Input
Amino acid sequence: PHLKKGYGRRVKEPVRYPAELDTTSAWLAGFLVGDGTIPKDDSPVILFAVTDETEPLLRKHLEAAFGPVGLSVYASHGTTKCRRFVVNARAVREFFTQRLGIDPRDKRRVPEPIRRSPADVVKAFIEGLFCADGYQAVNRHRLISTTSEIFARELAALLLWIGHGVKLHFARHGPGAFKPGGTWQVFFCDSTC
Output
């Protein structure tokens, strides 16, 4: 892996599409929804925020799902914890936007193919989402926060379907908060909470 500015190197080998939505591509979709960006223009890239812990997992899943893809990692401005991780491959972008229906303008939805998938694929999506944007509380609860009520309710439904105990909570932001309004918090655990 090399550090550089820009959108990464392109590879000459063709990028392969996953033949079906499996646990690897579902984990990637969860990670993308949690901490990724698909630019609104037509550029052939996907951007992720990664840490020292999440970068190796993201690389492993990308390689398993798509084979060799153009990758670049560089420090993000304003933080020492996260780096920008760039995937430069149109086929990868098209897989997420066309095959899974993730909308670059609003990715805060559970993709329809995930909602119709078997439990192991749903679990992989949730694990990718949690890896990117989750929080492990001391009381065995895990937490995913979002500003989207629709996404929070879709996620809660998936978690209930695969047997997790779920609590949905809306936390209103106070005056001067970073984001106006509030945050939907989805608490979940392996049994009833």
Observations:
- The first strand starts at residue 36 and ends at 37.
- The CA atoms of residues 73 and 85 lie 5 Å apart.
